Automatic annotation (TrEMBL):
<dbReference type="InterPro" id="IPR051178">
    <property type="entry name" value="TfdA_dioxygenase"/>
</dbReference>
<protein>
    <recommendedName>
        <fullName>TauD/TfdA-like domain-containing protein</fullName>
    </recommendedName>
</protein>
<keyword id="KW-0479">Metal-binding</keyword>
<comment type="similarity">
    <text>Belongs to the TfdA dioxygenase family.</text>
</comment>
<keyword id="KW-0560">Oxidoreductase</keyword>
<keyword id="KW-0408">Iron</keyword>
<feature type="domain" description="TauD/TfdA-like">
    <location>
        <begin position="21"/>
        <end position="369"/>
    </location>
</feature>
<dbReference type="InterPro" id="IPR003819">
    <property type="entry name" value="TauD/TfdA-like"/>
</dbReference>
<keyword id="KW-0223">Dioxygenase</keyword>
<dbReference type="Pfam" id="PF02668">
    <property type="entry name" value="TauD"/>
</dbReference>
<dbReference type="InterPro" id="IPR042098">
    <property type="entry name" value="TauD-like_sf"/>
</dbReference>
Amino acid sequence: MSATATITQTSPAPADILRVEPLPGRSFGARIILPSYAKDPKDLNDADFDRLYKAVHTYLVVVLPGLADLDPTSQYLLTKRFDPTCEGAYGHSKEFRHEKSVLRNDGSSVIKQPQVQILGQGNADGHEGVEKLTLRHPTHMSFHKTPLSEQEMADGYTRFYRWHIDSALYELAPPVITTLLGIDCPSGERQKIKVDNSDVVFESDVAATAFISGADAFDSLSDELKQFALGTTVVYAPHPYIYISGAKATSDGFTMVSEGLETPLDELPPWEDAKIKRLPLVWTNPVTGRHHLQVHGCCIWKLETPNGVQELDQARQTIHSLMTPQLTHDRVYLHDWQKGDLVIFFNRGVWHSVTGQFGPEGHRLMHQCNIASGVDPVCVK
């Protein structure tokens, strides 16, 4: 008797490559699954790094989970790999620590890798060799002109702190990406983010990081406003974080209130007109070709528009009117941090903001890295 051989067919194993999982129900954002050979993302081969590069530019904010032990040098090398033109200087340079800068208390540099900043809340003595280290999470109470009342905060309400792009906005070109690593990120405590003069309330974990897509913002404009934006150049103030140090922000964190409290130009550190950043209001994504409305509303000085120059107060009003319509649930992505999340965001394609405040015993520890680019963003009309 002859026997017939039985052949069992099996599906081939999925290729061991970097995988991209878009966040469901959102216009941007994705989760990244690293291939098994790359426990450290700096070790990605060229093909997988290209997948990651395109994912960051396409989805704008991507999350790589499970990397709490990522070494600061690895984070720096990964960040630097996204921009061959950068020379390795931290995106804010030394002005980050100037005694009058509004950023001066927002972090401490890793000694062995100074492009990486230590951020968070509470005591972290000895972390990465820093003997004495007390971290302060920035909150709207000291930055906004009219902060929430004690009762509102006791009821669990908070605000968006400052919507911004990571950049010195003087002399140095804006970084292409920022990487944020959550090392110790307590989760579970919830907060309600209030928007004044609106019924919109956002809910998230305490101190979630908020993102808005500049591409969504541009696409939402009327045809007339799109033409206005495409023809407008933003002129940033010299040493902008020192320039605005005496002023206070609007309650949504989009720009500053004009009360004449800016540092007079002749009291700023020495500055040169040639180093003032004049950047297009619209930046074109080099991978997708989409236009992104990209502006740091708190640091603007003037707008050069198709209809003439707008000085400080009018420029702030114009930018505020372009930004505020984005504060809707379908436009804002709030990232609730989990221990080990490495978030990479396209700094030339999104705005982001700190949220929330910690109690007296609150603690969080994060590493942040962005590197000044060698070239400015452009608008391809």
